[in-house]
Amino acid sequence: MSVPLTFAVPKGRILDEALPLMARAGVVPEAGFHDKANRSLSFACDDPAMRVIRVRAFDVATFVAHGAAQVGIVGADVIEEFDYSDLYAPVDLDIGYCRLSVAEPADGAASIDGASHVRVATKYPNLTRRHFEVRGVQAECVKLNGAMEIAPALGLAGRIVDLVSSGQTLKDNGLVEVSTIMEITARLIVNRAALKTDPRVAALVDRFREIAA
User: How far apart are CA 45 and CA 28, in angstroms?
Assistant: First the structure.
């Protein structure tokens, strides 16, 4: 019997939008997947030749790039942040719309910035550095996994780079967007080697292409 195909999905907001697309493509996880009290990370599917793993968004890209999962769904922000050579994103799923933006206090960035650099709180250090580099500015990135919005008020960083949807969280914390780094949608991602060697992966890509068209 062949090893099940592993499909990685992210915890959080993208998953709710992705589940109907997954179902149309034949990726239907067992009932326990929808039980909020269930702490399992790996789930069987209606199709016994497939399983779903539910992990953090950043980890989806890592699992797929290294071949531990063959297929996954993740935001374009994660793809660009890691830039894995073994990762291929063949389908824009047209869900999970948001943007990655630079924000700062409404009354301006804190004076902790130096003359030739800025200090930025973010979980996207690579995208942040590239964004400021093309503008001739060196970004000192303070890596945070959450609660970015309070960093300026506490003097940790003058600016933040984070995902923005409605912008209400920024407003509630006295921040304003000053520039957009990238617009984001969720993508189907695959491991390049698996796409070449496992016909199930290619077939799944074709199904998602038809659904997203």
Answer: 5
